[in-house]
Structures are given as C-alpha cells and as structure tokens.
C-alpha cells in the first residue's frame, strides 16, 4: 500500500478522505440536514427550528504561540472562532463543550486565565459553557471547543445558495488580524534576540504597540459577528449564502462559489481594508490588500444577497458591498483600481497542512 503524507493531501484533501469513510453514519441519521461541508453540521429536532453545531481545535505552535498570546485572550478567541461558525449559518449560538489537553508543567493559574477568557466571551454571546473533558498533554496545550446554536428553518444560510446577480457583502474590515500577527511576531523575534544575547529585555511593549492596537486586537481578540446576525434577523433578511472569513476573503469566497456553482467579480476599491493594517503594511513595506484577501482569521461574515433583499439592509454602514455573483464560467475575479482584472485563485490562500 502506498502511503501519502498529510502534508501532501493538504487539509481539504484529508477532510475529503475522512468524509468518504464516515459517510454511512450520515446516511443513517434521518434528522441530519447537513453533515460535512459547511461552517456547521445541521439537524432538525422539530419542525421550523434547526440546530447547528461546529467544533474547532487550537493547537499550541500550530494555531497559537503562548509567547505572543495571553492565556485569557486565547480562551476568548477559542470561543469566538466557534461562535463565528455558528453566526456563519445565520444562527444564534447557545451551548459550548470545551476539552483541553494540558502539559503538566503549565501553571493552574494559566488554565484559570484561559477559562476567564472563555467565560467573558461566552457571556458576551449568551453561550453557556456546559461541559468538556480534561487530559494531560505530552506536548503543548490543545484546546477543542464545540458550540451548538439554533435558527428558524427559513432563516438558515448555507454556502450553496449564491445566485448569479446577487450582491457580495462583507462585514467590518479585513487584513487587521494578519497585520497584528506580523507585529506580534516581530516583537517576539526582538525579544528572542535580547534573550540570546543575554541582555535584559526592557522594551516597553505596551507603549510601543499602542498605535497598532486596531490590528493586534483583531488578531488576539476577534469578535464573532453575532451583532450582524441579530441585525439580519431583526430586518427579516436571509442571505442567499454565507461563510465566516477564517481562511481569507479569496479562499472563503471560493468555498461559496464552489458550493453554489457560481463565479464572482470583486471590486478592489470596495474591499474594506483595516486602517491599522495599512499603517503596518507601510512600515513593513508589505501589502495590506494582500492581507485582506488572503490573510484570514478576521472572522468577519461574507455573504451574498439578492439586490431586492439588500435594499432592506443598505443603511448598515458596517456592511460593505464588494462585488457581484457571476456565472460559474467567469471564475473568481478581482477588478483592481486601474480596471485590470486579476484571477483571485492565483493568489496565495491558506492551507493548514502546508
Ligand atoms: P471552518 O474553516 O469553517 O472551521 P473546516 O475547513 O475546518 O471549516 O471544515 C470543513 C468541513 O469539514 C466542515 O463541515 C467540518 O465539519 C468538516 N471536517 C473537518 N475536519 C473533520 C474531521 N476530522 N472529521 C470529520 N469532519 C471534518
Ligand atoms: Mg467557518
């Protein structure tokens, strides 16, 4: 038997293989509306109401670095990224189960800080942390969070409902998280250098980083856009498709387009690039638009909506119109500020295994 490294299949290739093995279990569940392939699994316990659930794994040195991430922020982020997947279905988060694997050397106070962060985020979203599991870890800290939520059947938003002519919308700003990560990584390298040279590390980090708060906050403490979901419910508006931006605007729009069998045309000048990201990009001689398109981890909502429905939410200044859904054959395109069209799929995305 020929073996293939998981680094070769990539994250999505691996998930496809897992999916083909567990498929029979999905077919045996009559209430299950949707298994693998969207932001959440969906099932229907009663008429008119759908329940959704999503789980995420955070692994030390893969997803976070305790040198640049305070434990409390990490706890908050672990809840927020799951709440974000629930929001991406246009659903309201309800319960969380949290499992952790902890290295024996880790101080109890640090675990408590982690849970204080989780509690504060959970309270913010109205989520009850209802249980979990605890184990010792022989490597780093591992955090697994599962969140459930619910939504009236007629309001759920899948990835596969985008239609030609629909408007493409995004909440908030993009690129802040990637920019914040770059600043934090730079600070970490400076600190490591001081340690290696046996110098005292006395940089006043807080004073230094003040002007970057808008980006660092977006990276360390992203907020799930439950406020947007509540707004959509209030206005009785259901997006034709929706996803949260975890992998990057380009790749996540790709997920919607693939699932919906459509193409999309984005306008560069409409993409809401985080203003602190622009500042940081200038300093590091990097490209803020690139971070906005492929940086990921901003946890904003990306959705499509018919022109008619969009009129009901057009007054919301936190929701930007960034493009339009086109036929599948047109592909995924970005029109830049000079009117030149670029293939979005040619830009680097994000794959967890590579
Ligand atoms: P997201 O970026 O929204 O968290 P993922 O890319 O992690 O979504 O997952 C895509 C889909 O694959 C989801 O439906 C998820 O439930 C499913 N999935 C991911 N990993 C596994 C796994 N190990 N076993 C079963 N399903 C999985
Ligand atoms: Mg998601």
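^ structure tokens above, recovered residues below v
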């Amino acid at each position: 038997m020929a073996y293939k490294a998981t680094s070769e299949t990539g994250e999505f290739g691996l998930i496809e293989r897992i999916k083909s093995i567990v498929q029979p279990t999905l077919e045996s569940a009559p209430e299950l509306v949707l298994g693998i392939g969207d932001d959440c699994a969906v099932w229907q316990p009663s008429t008119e109401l759908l329940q959704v659930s999503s789980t995420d794994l955070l692994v030390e040195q893969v997803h976070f670095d305790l040198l640049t991430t305070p434990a409390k922020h990490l706890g908050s982020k672990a809840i927020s990224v799951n709440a974000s997947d629930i929001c991406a279905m246009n659903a309201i988060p309800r319960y969380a189960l949290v499992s952790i694997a902890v290295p024996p050397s880790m101080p109890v106070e640090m675990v408590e800080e982690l849970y204080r962060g989780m509690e504060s985020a959970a309270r913010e979203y109205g989520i009850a942390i209802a249980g979990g599991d605890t184990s010792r870890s022989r490597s780093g800290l591992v955090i697994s969070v599962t969140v459930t939520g619910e939504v009236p059947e007629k309001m759920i938003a899948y990835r596969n409902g985008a239609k030609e002519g629909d408007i493409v919308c995004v909440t908030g700003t993009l690129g802040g998280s990637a920019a914040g990560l770059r600043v934090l990584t730079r600070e970490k390298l400076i600190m490591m250098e001081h340690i290696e040279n046996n110098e005292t590390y006395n940089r006043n980090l807080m004073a230094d980083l003040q002007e970057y708060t808008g980006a660092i906050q977006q990276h360390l403490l992203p907020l799930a856009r439950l406020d947007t979901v509540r707004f959509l419910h209030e206005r009785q508006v259901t997006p034709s498709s929706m996803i949260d931006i975890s992998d990057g605007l380009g790749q996540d729009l790709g997920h919607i387009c693939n699932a919906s069998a459509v193409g999309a045309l984005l306008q560069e000048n409409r993409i809401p690039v985080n203003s602190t990201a622009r500042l940081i990009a200038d300093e590091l001689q990097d490209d803020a638009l690139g971070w906005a398109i492929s940086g990921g981890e901003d946890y904003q909502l990306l959705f499509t909506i018919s022109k008619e429905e969009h009129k009901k939410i057009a007054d919301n200044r936190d929701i930007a119109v960034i493009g339009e859904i086109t036929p599948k054959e047109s592909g995924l395109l970005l029109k830049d500020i000079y009117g030149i069209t670029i293939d979005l799929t040619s830009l680097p995305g994000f794959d967890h295994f590579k």
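The two ends are 24 Å apart (CA to CA).
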